[in-house]
Amino acid sequence: MTAPCREQVKHDYPDRPDGRSPVRRVALRARCHDVRMTDPQAPDAAETGERIEVSRIVRADPAAVFALLTDPQGHVAIDSSGMLMGADGERVTAAGDTFVVHMDREALGDVPLGEYDVTVTIGDFEQDRLISWSVLGKVRPQIGHVYGYRLTPVEGGTEVVSFYDWSDIHPEWRARGIFPVISEASLKATLGILARTVAPYRRADHS
Predict the structure, then answer these.
(1) How many C-beta neighbours within 10 Å does residue 202 have?
(2) Any idea of the CA torsion for 177, 181, 183, 188, to the nearest 10 degrees?
(3) So what's the pLDDT on residue 1?
(4) Which pLDDT score is estimated for 83?
(5) Phi first, then psi: what are they for 136, rounded to 5°?
(6) 145-161: b or e for each residue (b if 16 or more CB lie within 10 Å)?
(7) Degrees to nearest 5, angle at CA 103 with 142 and 16
(8) Which residues of the chain register pLDDT less than 70?
(9) What is the pLDDT of residue 165?
(10) What is the torsional sign of CA 111, 54, 149, 173?
C-alpha cells in the first residue's frame, strides 16, 4: 500500500492566555513520494506534539555534564524556571534511584501549590549518555511527565539534548489542556545555565 502525497506540516501555536511562551509543535507526515506502509504502530511523542527537545553544544566532555545531572544539587543549580529551591539526596547511580527536590510553584503562578516537595525517580540511566526522570509530587492523580538529557560527544565538547515528554500523562491532566507546563524557552535557558556551570566563560575560548 502506498501513502498519499502529503507535505510535512508545522503548527505554530500563538501565545497562550496564561502568558507562557509559545511552543512549536511539529506533526510529521509522509513526504511527497511513495512510502511503503507498515503495520500500524503507536505514534511517538514527537509526532503527536507531546514532546519538546532543545539542544546546544557545551564546551565540556560528556562525563562532566553527566556528573552535574546526576547530582541533586546540580538540578537546582541549572534550573531556569525558578521553582527548584533546594534538594536532598545522594548522587544517583542507576535507574530507580531517587532524591527529593524542594519546590515553590509561585515562580510559575499557574497552580496555587505554594511550597512543596517532589520525589525525583530516575528512569533511563546510561553512564555519560542518557538520563531521564519522573516526578512524584503532592497532586493527585500523579501526572506522569518525563524530563531528561541525552549526551553525544562532538568535536569541542558535547551535544546536550534536553527533552520534556508529556505523552503518558494521566487522562485527567490531559483533559485540563495545560501542558506543557515548562516552555521550550525555559528548557533552552536551562541549557544555557548548564553550559555556564560546567564550562565557565573564558575569553581565550572566544578569541
Answers:
(1) 9
(2) -150
(3) 45
(4) 87
(5) -110, 115
(6) bbbbbbbeeeeebbebb
(7) 70
(8) 1-48, 108-112, 141, 169-170, 172-180, 201-207
(9) 85
(10) positive
Q: How far is CA 158 from CA 78, 80, 150, 168, 170, in A?
A: 17, 20, 10, 29, 34
Which value, in Å, is the radius of gyration of the alpha carbons in the chain? 19
Alpha-carbon span 191 to 199, nearest angstrom: 12
> How far lies 64's CA from each of 4, 128, 157, in Å?
47, 8, 10
pLDDT at residue 184, rounded to an integer: 92
Give SS3 for 54.
strand
Round to whole Å and give the CA distance between 73 and 76: 5
Cell numbers that stand for 45 in this block: 511523542
- CA 30/CA 2 separation, integer angstroms: 10
Taking CA atoms, 31 is separated from 4, 28, 36, 45, 144, in Å, by 9, 9, 12, 19, 32
